[in-house]
Amino acid sequence: MSDRITVEELAELMKKSAGVTVTPEELGLHNPGFDTLGVDSLGLLGIVGELENRYGTPMPADAERSKTPRQFLDLVNSALMTGA
Q: Carrier domain: which residues (predicted)?
């Protein structure tokens, strides 16, 4: 397990936790908003919860309020790298 969440992992988590199927390419190229993708606040909370279980550490409070996948990845990966 890596200490960084990839676009591929986020796409997998979106499908598992929020029921939204999206390709990693769609996330990486266009940086659409979570709302555009159909991920609501509960779906994003599910993704955050899954990551907290996976890594055994709380994710940043702002993670569940991220507007885009890129913003989410930047925030979560920064926290994981600093051990926060």
A: 4-84
| Separation in Å, CA 1 to CA 4, 5, 31, 55 | 9, 9, 25, 9
For CA atoms 38, 43, 45, 46, the dihedral sign is negative
Burial class (CB in 10 A: 0-12, 13-18, 19+), 64: middle
> Phi-psi region for residue 56, left (φ > 0), alpha (ψ -120 to 50) or beta?
left
Task: Give mean pLDDT in consecutive 10-residue pieces for the chain, a chain of 84 residues.
Answer: 84 94 87 91 94 91 92 93 72
Among residues 58, 68, 55, the alpha carbon closest in space to that of 22 is found at 68
- Two structure tokens written together for 38: 């159909």
Output the six-digit token pair for 77: 């990966």
Residue 7: other Cβ atoms inside 10 A: 18
